[in-house]
Automatic annotation (TrEMBL):
Residues of the Pyruvate flavodoxin/ferredoxin oxidoreductase pyrimidine binding domain: 16-160
GO molecular function: 4 iron, 4 sulfur cluster binding; indolepyruvate ferredoxin oxidoreductase activity; metal ion binding; thiamine pyrophosphate binding
GO biological process: small molecule metabolic process
Protein name as catalogued: Indolepyruvate oxidoreductase subunit IorA
Annotated organism of origin: Victivallis vadensis
Gene3D superfamilies (UniProt xref): 3.40.50.970
InterPro entries: HACL1-like, IorA, Pyrv_Fd/Flavodoxin_OxRdtase_N, THDP-binding, TPP_enzyme_TPP-bd, Transketo_C/PFOR_II
Keywords: 4Fe-4S, Electron transport, Iron, Iron-sulfur, Metal-binding, Oxidoreductase, Transport
Superkingdom, natural source: Bacteria
Lineage: Bacteria, Pseudomonadati, Lentisphaerota, Lentisphaeria, Victivallales
EC number: 1.2.7.8
PANTHER family in UniProt: 2-HYDROXYACYL-COA LYASE, INDOLEPYRUVATE FERREDOXIN OXIDOREDUCTASE ALPHA SUBUNIT
Summary of subunit composition and partner proteins: Heterodimer of the IorA and IorB subunits.
Cofactor or coenzyme needed: [4Fe-4S] cluster
Amino acid sequence: MTQRILASGNEAIAMAAFDCGVNLGVGYPGTPSSEILDEFSKEGGTAQWAPNEKTALEVGIGVAFANGRSLVTMKHVGLNVAADPLFTIAYSGTPGGLVIVSADDPGMASSQNEQDNRRYAIAAGVPMLEPADSQECYDFLIRAFELSEAYRRPVLFRVTTRVCHSKCILERRGRIAEPKTGSFTHDPRSNVMIPAYARIAHKNLRATLHKLEELNEKGEFVKRIEGSGELGVITSGISFQHVRDAAPEASVLKLGFTYPLPLETIRKFAESVKRCVVVEEGDPILADAINAAGIRVEGKPEMFRFGELNVQRVRRLLAGDTTPEPAPAPGKPPQLCAGCPHRKTYQALHELNCIVSGDIGCYTLGVLPPFEAVDTCVCMGASITVGLGMRRVLPEAEARRVVSVIGDSTFMHTGVNGIVEMVYNRPATGHVVLVLDNSTTAMTGMQEHPGTGRKLDHTPAPQVSIEQVVRGIGVDNVDVIDSTVNYEAFKELVQKRLASNDTSVIIARRPCILAMVKLKSYEGKK
């Protein structure tokens, strides 16, 4: 029975996953994707957080190899971590449905870059759907699983911040399929990508993409709005909503299945208008592909490649207005919460004049006043390895000031490899790694991870001990301390470890101040 409800894009994806019988939802939390698996779990689906996105995708691949349906979720930079299995599973495919949600973040509301993951679909050769609102999130996700199974290919499901978090009316169909019972068929020629099989698989992949292009030409994922013959706009995703408000008189071709493109449909549309403009957030991927096919369209000026589009920016884009945009109103700068356990840690590092190799998490805010105690930040897990690199070339007095800072969730994500590197390729001055353990994945909404002892739904789970892991790898000194309660002792400990030639891990452990109430409420869960 159809329901009419108000839902965000993330909620719609979760509902669709439940309604079409997804066996497992798996991912790593990252804004703007984080709510999808929480909502899927609340719907009654089986969901779990993986230590990182590569692990998540590989678990999802296993589900799909066993003829189940798996939904794998991550933010855009997470797909970098999952790229290794992505490029190979594009060749082999899976008999079960495999849909990978990439939630891109134009404008970097909560990210270190605004990469455009449409490029992954082209590079890996995987079909890609791009919904423009919550209804399309729901409808397209169900079709994504059908396409994945029909063509034995993973499907990249690209959403962006505004689609993820904006709400609109959704017509929900209700349960249309139950999760399948898994089965496995011995088929190494399809599933084992040794070179002899992979060469065949690559040719099969390209043949499948041609078939998908033919499917796309039939128009199921294309919306054409007739308007003026003077101006035509080709667009996709959230940009469609902005175009409709900015240029209601224009003819519009909205693309929902954006790789492979329906080039003949696009050609006919472009020929039907005097001026044809491509409006897209991020990189000029549609414009470049359409022009490369010999279809003459206008792209956008370089200035509109950065940040999110909105109605006013689209009006300017269509008018060719490249005058400087007004500066946004200054907002309140972000800062570590009052009472945050990281505050005393950064105070000590600042007072000790450390060179701090930082990482991704709420603790990255230690770069800002009043602490100004983070000197580098690249990507998840890089704090340890970047710090080791600096230790390799700095004069001894400088090298002894280098400290790597990483959070507990990020340690589980990609920090362990850095500890292995530290022990295996030990610098002459040793190294100090500081794990800021606040017992949650705080930055993305207080999600669980392998070190919290709780599953995605906050019920008990086996707990991975950071101190046991690093001791097992072979770290010389492992200390656990509360830097808030024992500030002077903490400061003295950091000084002592910096002065030695040992490898040292100091775990500054104190629960996140915002998570404390929630942590208490989880204690009774079974």
